[in-house]
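[09:14] KT: can someone run the structure on this one? pasting the chain below
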Amino acid sequence: MIITVGRQHGSNGRDIARALAEELGYTCYDKEIVDHAAEDSCFSKEIFDSNDEKRVSPYIFPTSHYMGMYDMGIHESFRLSMQVASAQFDTIRKLADKGNGIFVGRCADYILRNRKDVLKVFIMADEDFRIQTIMKRKDLNADQAKKLIKEVDKDRSSYYKYYTDQIWGDAKNFDVCINSGRLGVDGSVKVIKACLETLK
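[09:31] RB: done, structure tokens below
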């Protein structure tokens, strides 16, 4: 079985995916997707990192694009973003073929949508919960945490919309949506495991 986990920033989606993978004995792919994609392509890990779930536009790029990291024009950089995303999606397909796995973000629910062995999950939480989570995780104040949440979620939403033509976090694109602010990590893991059992 394959489980894809979309998540709002600060909802503990990554922690839930890791805990679930440990309980099930599955392989969890989060940043590992980037690592594998870099190994399988002609692009460096730094290039994958700078394009990972970032807003897609010929005129909007991660700050590093304008700090001399790449000596190329805007449209060439845009083309690079497309090539990097394509390589990453190919990697997701290859990793899914290896067996039981959990994929965090990166449009995996859409990329693997035609498989019959996929459970698509989206993790959310209310804003106050996510602000508190990011404050503790990043050692930020409330305003800084709120700003970061907004920026990361905007990046993920734009990235998802561009490559899937669907709305990020829309319930109809997922099999189950979970409020981790109410259920916590352990409760969320139990719900996903129960859903998974019904598909086996």
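[09:33] KT: thanks! The chain has eight helices and five strands.
[09:34] RB: yep, looked fine to me
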